[in-house]
C-alpha cells in the first residue's frame, strides 16, 4: 500500500442495492493498493441500503439521485443546457441521436451537480495526496469522473490518472435501440485509458473512435473459486444451471421452451436459475415456466449473493451451465461456472467467445438458435462418454485457472494502475 495515494471509484450502485457483484472481489485488491479508497455510487437513492461490506480504509459518499422518469425529466433542465445544445447542434448525427446526446449529457451533469455538493461537504483530502479516478462504467460514471477531475485540478490537487472499465451496455452499440452510444469521442479524449473486459468491446471502441486506439486495451475481470482443483461432475443426467438477472435480453424463456421439449420427448432433466429481476417481468417468466414445465423439475432461487453462487454449484449435482443472452460483456457467471469445472453452452455475443472455446470447454451457439437446436446441443453433451465429458470439465477449470483467476488479474491491474501505464 502506497501512502498519500487515494483512489476515487465511481460506480452505479455498489456497495448498495444489487449488481456490480464483480466489485465484491476487486475492492479487496484496490484497498490493499491505495491508502484510501472513496466510492461514489451515482445511481442510488435514499431508500437503498448498503448490501455489501467494504474494507476499513474504504469511505462511501452516499449521494441521492432520482432516476425515476420524473427525476430524469427534471435533470434535462440543468442550468448548462444552452451551451450543451449549441455543441450538440454541430454534431453530424441524426436528430434522434442528438436527443440522446442531450439526454445523456444533461443527466450526467445533473448527477455531477449532486455529487459535487455532497463531495464538498463530506470529503476532506490532503492537498499532498495523489489522486486516481476509476470509473467502473464507460457511461454516466465516466462523465461524472471527468467533471470530478476538472474540479480537483482547479482546487490544486494532483490527479495522476483517470481510467474507465467498459463492460456490455456501455460499449456495445448494437444492443442499443439507436445502435448508438453518446459521447464516445469526448469520453475517450478525456480518459487516460479505457479497459473493455472483452476483445469485442475493444474492437467496438476502436472502430468507433480510431484516433484514440492507443488508449484502449482489454483487461479481464476475475473470480475466486471455492475449489483450487478440478471437480468431477456427472453428465448422465441433464442438470442445468443458469445465473443472470431476469430481463428480456437474457432470453430465459428460450431455456424454458427448450426444456418443455424434454417433457414432450420423455427426457429427464432438472434446471435451477439463480437471479431475480423487476417484479413484473420476473412474475411473467415464473408464470411461463409453470405453464410449460413440470413442477419440481425446476427452481427459481431468486437473488443469490455472489459468494453463495459457487457453493450452490458444488452442492447441487449440476452438469452444465447455460447462457443464451443476446448481449453480454464477458459474463462473470460463465467465469464462475468454469472455476467450478462446469462446461458451458453460451450464445456467441459480446466477449463470450474470449473465454468459451467451442468444443474445448463448452459450446458456442448463435444467440438466435432455436430451442430445438439448443436441446440437441444439450443432448450432445449429455451423450458424451465419461472420459470426454471430464476432459471438457477440466478444460473449463483450466480456462479459469490461466485466464480468469481473480488474484492474478486484480493484483496485476492494481499495480499497473498505481505504477504506470496499464
From TrEMBL:
Annotated coiled-coil positions are none
Which domain of life does the UniProt lineage start with? Bacteria
The record ties this protein, via Gene3D superfamilies, to: Glycogen Phosphorylase B
Transmembrane parts of this sequence: none
Sorted alphabetically, the keyword list is: Transferase
Which InterPro entries would you find in this protein's record? Glyco_trans_1
Q: Does the keyword Transferase apply?
A: yes
Q: Where is the Glycosyl transferase family domain?
A: 232-396
Looking up Pfam families in the UniProt record yields: Glycos_transf_1
Output the PANTHER family linked to this UniProt entry. Answer: GLYCOSYLTRANSFERASE WBBK-RELATED
- According to UniProt, the name of this protein is Glycosyl transferase family 1 domain-containing protein
Taxonomic path? Bacteria, Bacillati, Bacillota, Bacilli, Lactobacillales
Amino acid at each position: 500500500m502506497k501512502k498519500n495515494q487515494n483512489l476515487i471509484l465511481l460506480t452505479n450502485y455498489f456497495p448498495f442495492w444489487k449488481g456490480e457483484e464483480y466489485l465484491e472481489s476487486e475492492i479487496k485488491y484496490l484497498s490493499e493498493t491505495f491508502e484510501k479508497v472513496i466510492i461514489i455510487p451515482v445511481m442510488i437513492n435514499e431508500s437503498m441500503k448498503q448490501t455489501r461490506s467494504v474494507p476499513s480504509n474504504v469511505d462511501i459518499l452516499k449521494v441521492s439521485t432520482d432516476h425515476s422518469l420524473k427525476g430524469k425529466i427534471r435533470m434535462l433542465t440543468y442550468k448548462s443546457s444552452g451551451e450543451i445544445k449549441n455543441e450538440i447542434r454541430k454534431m453530424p448525427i441524426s436528430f434522434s441521436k442528438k436527443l440522446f446526446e442531450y439526454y445523456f449529457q444533461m443527466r450526467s451533469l445533473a448527477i455531477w451537480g449532486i455529487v459535487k455538493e455532497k463531495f464538498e461537504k463530506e470529503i476532506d483530502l490532503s492537498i499532498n495526496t495523489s489522486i486516481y479516478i476509476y470509473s467502473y462504467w464507460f457511461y454516466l460514471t465516466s462523465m461524472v469522473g471527468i467533471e470530478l477531475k476538472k474540479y480537483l485540478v482547479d482546487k490544486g490537487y494532483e490527479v495522476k490518472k483517470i481510467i474507465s472499465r467498459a463492460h456490455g451496455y456501455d460499449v456495445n452499440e448494437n444492443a442499443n435501440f439507436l445502435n448508438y452510444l453518446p459521447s464516445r469521442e469526448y469520453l475517450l479524449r478525456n480518459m487516460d485509458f479505457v479497459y473493455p473486459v472483452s476483445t469485442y468491446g475493444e474492437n467496438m471502441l476502436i472502430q468507433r473512435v480510431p484516433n484514440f486506439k492507443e488508449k484502449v486495451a482489454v483487461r479481464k475481470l476475475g473470480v475466486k473459486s471455492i475449489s483450487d482443483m478440478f471437480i468431477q461432475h456427472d453428465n448422465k443426467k441433464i442438470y442445468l444451471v443458469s445465473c443472470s438477472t431476469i430481463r428480456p435480453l437474457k432470453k430465459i424463456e428460450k431455456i424454458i421452451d427448450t426444456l418443455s421439449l424434454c417433457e414432450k420427448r420423455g427426457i429427464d432433466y432438472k434446471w435451477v436459475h439463480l437471479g431475480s429481476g423487476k417484479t413484473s417481468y420476473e412474475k411473467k417468466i415464473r408464470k411461463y415456466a409453470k405453464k410449460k414445465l413440470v413442477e419440481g423439475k425446476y427452481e427459481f432461487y431468486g437473488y443469490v449473493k455472489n459468494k453463495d453462487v459457487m457453493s450452490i454449484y458444488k452442492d447441487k449435482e449440476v452438469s452444465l451451465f447455460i447462457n443464451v443472452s443476446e448481449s453480454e460483456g464477458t459474463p462473470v457467471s460463465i467465469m464462475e461456472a468454469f472455476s467450478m469445472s462446469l462446461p458451458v453452452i453460451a450464445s456467441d455475443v459480446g466477449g463470450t467467445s474470449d473465454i468459451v472455446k467451442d468444443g474445448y470447454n463448452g459450446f458456442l451457439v448463435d444467440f438466435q438458435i432455436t430451442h430445438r437446436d439448443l436441446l440437441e446441443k444439450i443432448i450432445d453433451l449429455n451423450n458424451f462418454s465419461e472420459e470426454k465429458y471430464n476432459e471438457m470439465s477440466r478444460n473449463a477449470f483450466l480456462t479459469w485457472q490461466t485466464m480468469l483467476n481473480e488474484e492474478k488479474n486484480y493484483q496485476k491491474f492494481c499495480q499497473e494502475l498505481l505504477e504506470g501505464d496499464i
